[in-house]
Request: fold
Amino acid sequence: MTGPLPADAATLPRPRPPRRRLLPIVVITVLVALGLLAALVAPVIVRGLTATVSPQERTIVLENETGQASIVLPGGWSWRTPFGDESRGVAGSPDRAMIVEFSLLSGSDASAALDQIAPGPLGPTSEEILSERATGIGEILHARVRDQETVVGAVAEGPVVLTFISSPSPAYDAELADLLSTIEVGR
Reply:
């Protein structure tokens, strides 16, 4: 067996270029990372995009860096919090005819916040003192937007202000008043 080797046995296999060896590893790593990210983030996004409804009365707490506000929602009302923002939320009446958007602000006074959130010119503003405390005076300002059925308002305790925009018909004024009577704002 001392003859010449066949031509295909004499050539050594050519090594793959380094880039071709790494490409499948990079692709698999990226796909696994995206899959893990989707598994972790998807439930949070879905929860933020869907409203929750409870048959019993429940307390919702909004928080930011300087204060918090609590709102007691009656049974059957829905609540939705935007993704990753614990200072805002949207409440909906059981028949979905009334929607109230809440936002907790700080470093503002109630009248400036009211002007900031109003989607149009405001009618006469109503002001009510809720309580007098050593830390400040709790007050609520609200007004109907002219030529609309929208009511805007602000509940303030010192520098912490909870604003709301409500789109009820005038028939829902009593429900809005009941909802606003449950709000507590503080530091």
Notes: The mean pLDDT is 78. The chain is about 30% helix and 35% strand. The first helix runs from residue 7 to 10.
